[in-house]
Design brief:
By secondary structure, this protein is of the alpha+beta class. It is built from 22 helices and 19 strands. Strands 2, 3, 4, 5 and 8 form a five-stranded mixed sheet that branches.
Length: about 575
């Protein structure tokens, strides 16, 4: 073989070796790629998918609004307005620290404080930065495209009637959970149930696409209250004026529909505005008309008269000898302001005779008197369902002493709430039957429970009309065009060491129109301090204004167009 041929063969061998080596490298590379593909697509598929989901998929909450609260005519008392809250993934924002100053500027917070807050929560993937912002202001932050920052749609509770319905409606916390009033009592019905959806996000934490809806949101149920907002405004205005004019500590007024047991108005003074968080203090939002108790004083006398009539020992025309103007019970001397002599039951109410009421109460069996008062609803809650409702205080007859029964005759030694007293007077107005008190509008009145006979109820109603007559203590409660039946009450407040000589509670309770009662109204003014303190002078005018206005609103027909009711009832009793 020549030298030339030998060289050619060497070059071929070298080329062939290099080609085989290159092919081997390529085959090895392909094998590596295939192996890697198998690892990624099969072996590590679940892990990689979960990691991608963590970075690109989020499960977000779908907000739903809380149920609305309205008055009986559909007027809004509590509504939910849409707002936005600013949320952040602290880890994502800390990875882009250059954007923190811009976010702090938009949120109007200190940059150092914001950085510290993010650092403390670096391990979390969700953090609220600011709750319940105006959507327009929140949109400016969204437009800044700050890493990890997003908006969350929420709802903020708003109360259109403000302080007029504050005590009754109550309020919610920042998470829209009921805290007081109807908001708390019916939270299980008002509360919404948020939904959930899965979304795709970009590297800045912004949502770019909806992937799937996991659960649909469920709005809360609407609540229709028994309140008539027109009467509520009226009662609020008149009570506020009376409390201010009399420089009183506080006051309450309740209006109940005699025919159904529905509460048409319930107001207190001083009030609070549930839209102003700074006013949400326990001493301001306490609903005194339902939670606070007081001794009813002479406003209890019609119930004692009812018990007397039910005993069968008294009739509407019975007469009581109150001479010589006082009665001795043990060591206590119970007196009237004058010797009224022999008087009828109507005069006992009209002149508010403590002696007459005491003699009647002492003549009754303790168990009998207690049973009638208990059946009227004293000593137990009205079952209105309002949070914190007081049961009042009516001790069992087995614990009574003679003086206990005597003082109970004119409203001392027991305690009631304004709502309890209104319910009791509604029984008299309804012909002796009691319907449960309701704070919700009723489609059909509840089945009533008889408390006293219709004859006794009608007799007491007629006797109470004398209180409004020209010579009665409650003449200021008269309403032009309507017959009114009611009773005044003035009690000294119990303080450390006994009953105060200068602190009083003024009360007026009654029903109207007397010929066919529709409204039971109770007005309580606590510690009037402007000279007058009698229930007939402080509380009765408020009653008159509320009944007059409510009668017009409800179009209740007048039953005394000639203004003769007062004089006729007085004449009939003589």
């Amino acid at each position: 073989m020549s030298r030339l041929e030998f060289g050619r063969r060497d070059r071929q061998l070298i080329f062939s070796g290099r080609s085989n080596f290159a092919l081997a490298l390529m085959a090895l590379g392909a094998l590596v790629l295939v192996g890697r593909a198998v690892q990624l697509q099969i072996v590590d598929q679940d892990f990689l998918n979960s990691q991608a989901a963590k970075r690109q998929l989020r499960t977000v909450e779908l907000g739903a609004h809380r149920g609305n609260i309205t008055d009986r005519n559909g007027e809004a008392l509590a509504v939910s307005a849409p707002v936005d809250s600013i949320t952040v993934d602290p880890g994502e924002l800390l990875a882009a620290t250059e954007q923190i100053p811009e976010l702090a500027r938009l949120l109007r917070v200190d940059r150092e404080q914001l950085s510290a807050q993010l650092s403390r929560n670096a391990q979390r993937n969700f953090l609220y930065l600011k709750r319940h912002m105006n959507p327009a202001d929140a949109a400016l932050i969204a437009q800044a495209n700050i890493a990890g920052v997003s908006l969350k749609r929420e709802y903020h509770r708003y109360y259109p009637a403000g302080e007029v319905t504050g005590h009754l409606i109550g309020f919610t916390d920042i998470d829209d959970v009921g805290q007081e009033g109807i908001e708390l009592a019916f939270d299980h019905r008002l509360a919404d149930r948020p939904g959930k959806k899965r979304v795709l996000i970009d590297r800045f934490g912004r949502m770019v696409d909806d992937v799937e809806r996991i659960k649909a949101p469920e709005p809360g149920q609407d609540i229709v209250t028994s309140i008539d907002l027109r009467i509520q405004y009226l009662a609020y205005r008149e009570l506020k004026k009376a409390v201010q004019q009399n420089k009183a500590k506080s006051g309450s007024a309740v209006v109940v529909d005699v025919l159904t047991g529905e509460v048409l108005a319930l107001v207190n003074q001083p009030s609070y505005n549930p839209n102003v968080r700074a006013q949400l203090q326990a001493n301001r939002y306490r609903n005194r008309a339902i939670t606070d108790i007081f001794e009813p004083g002479s406003s209890l006398k019609p119930l004692v008269i009812a018990a007397a009539l039910e005993s069968g020992n008294y009739k509407a025309n019975s007469r009581i000898d109150t001479s010589p103007g006082y009665v001795q019970v043990g060591v206590k001397k119970i007196e009237d302001s004058e010797n009224l002599g022999r008087i009828g039951l109507g005069t006992i109410l009209a002149k508010s005779s403590n002696v007459g009421a005491t003699k009647i109460a002492m003549s009754l069996e303790p168990e009998q008197l207690w049973k009638v008062l208990s059946d009227f609803g004293l000593g137990r809650p009205t079952d209105s369902g309002f949070p914190g409702e007081s049961a009042g205080l009516l001790s069992h007859f087995s614990n009574w002493r003679a003086i206990s029964q005597a003082t109970l005759a004119y409203g001392y030694g027991l305690s009631v709430t304004p709502l309890q007293l209104a319910q009791a007077y509604a029984v008299i107005g309804a012909g002796g039957v009691q319907r449960p008190v309701s704070l919700l509008r009723l489609n059909q009145p509840a089945i009533p429970r008889r408390v006293i006979s219709a004859q006794s109820a009608n007799a007491v109603l007629g006797l109470m009309e004398e209180v409004i007559g020209p010579d009665g203590t409650g003449y200021r409660a008269a309403v032009p065009g309507y017959r009114v039946a009611g009773k005044t009450g003035t009690t000294q407040k119990f303080t450390t060491g006994g009953y105060s000589e200068n602190r009083y509670t003024a009360v007026f309770a009654g029903v109207a129109p007397a010929s066919n009662p529709r409204l039971a109204v109770v007005v309580v003014v606590d510690e009037p301090n402007n000279g007058e303190y009698y229930g007939g002078k402080v509380a009765a005018p408020v009653f008159s204004s509320i009944v007059a206005g409510a009668s017009r609103i409800l179009a209740i027909p007048p039953d005394d167009l000639h203004g003769q009711a007062g004089s006729l009832t007085v004449a009939a009793s003589k």
